[in-house]
Amino acid sequence: MGSVRKRGKTWNAQVRISGWRSFTKSFKSKSDALCWIKALESNLKSTDMPKVNIGNITLKDLLQRYATEMSLHLKGSEVQIYVLKFYARHPISQIKLSDLTERHFEYLRDERLKQVKHGTVHAQLMLLKRVFRTAIYKWGYGIPKNPIEHLQLPPTHKSRKRRLASNEKKRLLSAACSQKNIYIAFIIEFAVETGMRRSEILKLRWRDIDFKNGFAFLFDTKNGEDRKVPLTKRCMRLLQKVPKSHEKIFPITANCLRLAWGRARAKAEIKDLRFHDLRHEAISRFFEMGMSVPEVALISGHKDVRQLLRYTHLNPTNIFKKYEDF
Predict the structure, then answer these.
(1) Catalytic residues, which ones?
(2) How far apart are CA 169 and CA 281, in angstroms?
(3) What is the C-alpha separation between 284 and 13, in angstroms, rounded?
(4) What is the layout of strands, in order, in the sheet containing 209-210?
(5) Residue 90, pLDDT above cutoff 90
(6) How far is it, in rounded angstroms, from Cα 173 to Cα 260?
């Protein structure tokens, strides 16, 4: 039911309906307050009753449920769960869902923009927006409005154009070979030759390689499909050098590779190069070899040609050399 109280020079309207959080708003006139109450009550009563009374449920509770019920079933869930846990530790997570407003997330957005890049903040807020949409439309939480739905988001990441410079691969491999872990140099060269994702490389087993015909078979990939990747002769020679001491070709964890990559990059004195940039490098090289879009997509696993072209940054010098054939 709705009620109106005069406080000073304004009229304070409040609506309480079972299953929903309470709503309050101030108006200059009593008639405006009564009209707002009538419209809101009509809207709430015509909307399906929420299955979950949000009561004392906090944002932390919601994030933890999403991580458990939704994120765990996704490929590459580690990153998403890491972000959800980060925000579950943030002070905003202690606020009740019934009290959260767009203003809270405006403050959160501005705070995070001082700490990380615009694209990172955009991606994380988009994740939080999906969390609220799931709570409202899938789980039936009594949240009448997604507080991030109309929040102004910072711009997304710009497409990276980073490729290996003239001697960077040689320096990387030299630095990797100096490490105790014998697999790092092999993995770096394998990534440049195949264009595979880090997760795909680390999942590869010896039984997935067809040495006779020169193919690698990838199963349960990021886009949900299996694929057959042709391997270069250099890649086949590389695999012959890798010790066969485990069912996996490269038996190390993603975190181990991340740390080793950082050490190798630092020792080689190379800046602004990510491991994923090796995939960009490989795909760009495939096009420079003269492969067609369908051929490269078959190797890389891209379903969307637009996404594939975002990964492609051709070297004008390499293209110019082809003029010599004409």
Answers:
(1) 197, 222, 276, 279, 302, 311
(2) 11
(3) 62
(4) 209-210, 215-218, 227-230
(5) yes
(6) 12
Architecture of domain 168-325: Orthogonal Bundle (1.10)
Q: Which residue did the predictor score with more confidence, 230 or 87?
A: 87
- What are the sequence ranges of the domains in the chain? 2-46, 59-138, 168-325
Partners of 11 in the beta sheet? 6, 27
pTM (2 d.p.): 0.61
Lowest-pLDDT choice from 11-15, 82-86, 124-128, 296-300: 296-300
